[in-house]
Design brief:
Length: 456
Amino acid sequence: MSAPKRERLTASGVAVLTLTFALTLTARVWGIDRHYWMLEDQIRDWSVALRPFTSLPLVGSPTHVHGYTIGPAFYWILWIIRTTVGPWFGNLPHAGGIGQAMLQSAADTLLLAAVWRRTGSVWLALTTVVAVATAAADLSYSALVWNPMAGAALSKIATAFVLLGWPQRSAAGVAVTAAVAWCAVQSYTGAIFVAVGVFAALLAGSAERRNRRAVVKNAAIVAVVVAVLQVPYAIHQFSNRFNDSGMSAVTGSVQQVLKGEQPLDLGRSWDGYAHAFTEIETAPWRKRWFVWVLVGCAAVVASRFRRDRPLLAVILLPQIAAVLGYAWYVGDFLDYYYYFPLMPAAVLTLTLSITAVRPTAWARAVSVALLIAALALVPARLRLSATLSRMPQYGPLLDGSRALVQLQRPVRAIRTEFALPPTSDPEFIYGILGGRIDRTSAFTGVIAADGRASIK
């Protein structure tokens, strides 16, 4: 498949893209002000976003393995969301979820445009995006202030840029694509495998044309972009005398394997990827044999597009790199969110295999049939998404906090007459709304299950 031709977008094309953005965003944020998942990570990161830009950290958010991501891109994005989307929703936590959902839906729309232009088939493009965007876990988690989903969205955008052929047309395209891919890594370390594929694609296009000068130029652009984006991290390390390692879990795992203390476990890594693919893309059915369909389609794509190295670099290489890379990781593979950035590549592997069907009319018919099937599965996926990452206490907590602020009386604490998740904070919303906590006050704010509030 050669680089896409530059064609003017028609009115019908604009309508399809606009509708895609609107529908995916609506599905993600519907009722978010009543069930937003406001737990420890969301409270911590939204608190950071509420600061002035000059007060943002020079590194990323903490990880569950006691490190942090290697750059501040996630907090930059979150700060932009807070300053642009936040004021429309009182800078409340769910504004961050809406902003991240907008980023995801924009990425879906761009991916739709990229696949459509690359293949010439709107049916194939729509099937891809419906499969990616309506996955129950994606729908639920993409509307959270959560760095793995920011990394997944940026990975999707970088992949779409490659499929659109922008990096092949200009140095600016190379630089922006590399920057987006590396910001994905700064947002979430698991996006590194997508970044590897994107960087390979940026070099592969010129290598195909035997243009050695262009290969060297693109490699230099990628290196400069990454170096510039790592300046904040370098400043952080310098200020800590290079004694602070945010990647200790990764480096520690690699060292254990190299020393022979732990095995290089490809089997466990493959099981982790298979589990993630099943949990994210095939739920609520979760049939393990679906992953072997993916393997078969990967073989078809590798044969069909064997001369299109940039495309293979962003579709097959990230998945292979992930299986090889996680084999070096000494950790738990049951957390399927590790693999969110890889899911667009997995779905593209499935859908692009259809292009091998001959004649073209048969391929079009199969694409339409698969789109109908994908749409038929959407209701079940929506029902499952409604059971994930939901905190129904958020609505009453928001209503009660507003009512307490209107009473204009400082309280020493706020308690609820309903149970909150252990890592949530009943006082967080109240503080954002302008309420004052005075630990010497004689009064306590009480929020009932129906959202009514009183002072006792």
